[in-house]
Design brief:
Elements lengths: L8 E2 L11 H14 L9 H21 L7 E4 L2 H12 L5 E5 L4 H14 L2 E5 L1 E2 L4 E2 L1 H9 L5 E5 L11 H11 L2 E5 L18 E5 L11 E5 L39 H17 L1 H20 L4 E3 L11 E5 L4 H12 L1 E2 L1 E3 L4 H7 L7 E4 L7 H19 L1
Parallel strand pairs: 1-13, 3-4, 3-7, 7-8, 8-9
Antiparallel strand pairs: 2-10, 5-6, 9-10, 11-12, 12-15, 14-15
Helix pairs in contact: 1-7, 2-7, 3-4, 5-6, 8-11, 9-11
The site of pyridoxal-5'-phosphate (PLP) has 13 residues, from helix 3.
Length: about 400
């Protein structure tokens, strides 16, 4: 008799969450099989069911964000899509932008491209390599040192998971007349926060990470009234005001042209309902328990280095290297010999690794539990790294 292979352990929730709550699969499936209509196109009963679903999803996301209303939320196809729409929509010729070396390529690359198109002045504030925190004092100094249109900050690093000092940066941005935009790919659904308390002007996030929706979903938030200052980068059919040759100027339609990913939004709506029932606080607490176990035990393995201060608030990501082994090779061994699925490399955040000094190691190995990870998964992952690190020391 042959042994049945163990189920793989998925610890790559920072890339996309898996598995999702059962209601997410059911909602996407039901939409495709039983409703199937295009949102905002037509006036039959099916389209009003679709409209109700979309409105409900916006309201649920607004509750998670503590936004003014569901209308402040526009749907996108992922976080990158939202970041591009906002950056391209808000920046103008010659603007100054203060951001950080903590950013993901979804911010770094559009900004770099816009720098040459619009002659932007771009400032990348460093982060402290030991703590893993953006230097808030330096960020505030930069905001005070010249008229700045936009401050862009990664709310929590996708490499170390550390939540960044938004409060101080938000206060300085508003004092100096800059807008504050968050890349909240790793925080929405992961940590409780209020866009109104943090005084965030714009935010983009994924629907498929902490929000537990299907891939191909994302969202952006724009503070009440600010949409007038943001150009609609994508224009086209919205199913409303069809007699006009101009893009409707109001939220959320201004930023939603073309058919929406309705099976994805049906899934996202079910996911948001599940999150609100569980509460973000309790999901964060659950993941924090697993994350503490992971980071604490990995830290004590000889030859393993864990990055970032583990006393700071974290969304549940551990990044580490193993002495003498390339991070991609570590991830390959974890996958092939221990059935542990994780991610290794630069995690699309090249400047983070320059500061951490992890480029020679091929970046870091990243473990990220999710709401369906159990304590034994984490224990198996720690044991796998222990065995691998020990084998290198023999
Ligand atoms: C911090 C951060 N920003 C942006 C993104 C891009 O997200 P998406 O793949 O949904 O476009 C990611 C995804 O890993 C991320 O971690």
């Amino acid at each position: 008799m042959t042994d049945t292979p163990a189920d793989p352990i998925y610890l790559d929730n920072a890339a996309t969450s898996f598995p999702k709550p059962d209601s997410v699969y059911a909602a996407a499936d039901t939409y495709m099989r039983q409703l199937g209509v295009a949102f905002g196109r037509g006036s039959h009963t099916g389209t009003s069911d679709a409209a109700r679903l979309v409105a409900q999803c916006r309201q649920r996301l607004a509750r998670i964000l503590d936004a003014e209303s569901g209308e402040r939320v526009a749907f996108t196809f992922n976080c990158t899509d939202g970041l591009n729409l906002l950056l391209r929509g808000v920046l103008r010729q010659g603007d100054r932008v203060v951001t950080s070396t903590m950013e993901h390529n979804s911010v770094l690359r559009p900004l770099q491209q816009l720098k040459s198109e619009l002659n932007l002045t771009l400032v990348h504030v460093e982060f402290d390599s030991k703590a893993g925190l953006v230097d808030a004092d330096a960020f505030v100094r930069e905001l005070h040192s010249g008229p700045t249109r936009l401050a862009v900050l990664n709310h929590a690093s996708n490499v170390t998971g550390i939540v960044q000092p938004v409060e101080a940066i938000s206060a300085a941005a508003h004092e100096t007349g800059a807008l504050l935009m968050l890349d909240a790919a790793q925080t929405v659904g992961h940590i409780p926060f209020s866009v109104r308390d943090l005084n965030v002007d714009m935010l983009a996030s994924a629907g498929h990470k902490g929000l537990l929706g299907p891939l191909g979903t994302g969202m952006l938030y724009i503070r009440d009234g600010l949409e007038d200052e943001i150009l609609p980068i994508r224009s086209g059919g919205t199913g409303t005001d069809s007699e006009s040759l101009l893009q409707p100027p109001f939220m959320p339609t201004k930023f939603e042209s073309g058919n929406m990913n309705m099976p994805g939004l049906a899934g996202l709506n079910a996911a948001a309902e599940w999150i609100l029932q569980q509460t973000v606080e309790s999901l964060h607490g659950q993941i924090t328990t697993l994350w503490k176990q992971l980071s604490h035990e990995l830290r004590h393995i000889s030859g393993v280095t864990v990055y970032g201060d583990t006393d700071l608030q974290n969304v549940g990501i551990v990044s580490f290297t193993v002495n003498g082994m390339d991070s991609q090779d570590v991830a390959a061994v974890l996958d092939q010999s221990f059935q542990i699925r994780c991610r290794a490399g630069l995690h699309c955040a090249p400047l983070v690794h320059r500061t951490l000094g992890t480029i020679p190691a091929g970046g870091t190995v990243r473990l990220s539990p999710g709401p369906f990870t159990v304590q034994t998964d984490v224990a198996k992952a720690v044991e796998a790294v222990r065995q691998l690190a020990a084998s290198l020391q023999d």
